[in-house]
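Colleagues,

For the teaching module next term, I've prepared a clean inverse folding example: a structure given as tokens, and then the sequence designed for it. I'd like students to try predicting residues themselves before seeing the answer, so please don't circulate the second half yet.
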């Protein structure tokens, strides 16, 4: 599973950022245009709210998991979350959690 999470984190970073790059080359860091296009119609608003709420859920999930277990480099998941979105941050955190579990189980033996 660990390798699958890493693959999904990479894909979940590259694909969204490739689209954001297109926006940046056309509009630059124009936040007004960004939010105008983000909520331009009902279906884009649906996806925008879904992703924004999911991002909050991922933040809560990361904090809850960190309180239960030591997960090294968890902050990398936050970078992915805020840079590319849930499709990057969540699988990256799951990958880091698996790494932590594997290290913990190998030290138990």
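(Answer key — instructors only)
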């Amino acid at each position: 599973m660990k390798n699958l999470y890493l693959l999904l984190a990479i894909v979940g970073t590259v694909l969204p950022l490739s689209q954001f790059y297109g926006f940046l080359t056309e509009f630059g860091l124009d936040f007004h245009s960004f939010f105008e296009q983000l909520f331009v119609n009902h279906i884009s608003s649906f996806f925008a709210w879904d992703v924004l709420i999911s991002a909050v859920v991922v933040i809560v999930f990361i904090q809850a998991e960190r309180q239960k277990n030591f997960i090294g480099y968890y902050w990398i998941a936050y970078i992915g979350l805020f840079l590319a979105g849930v499709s990057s941050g969540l699988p990256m955190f799951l990958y880091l959690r698996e790494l932590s579990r594997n290290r913990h189980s190998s030290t138990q033996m």
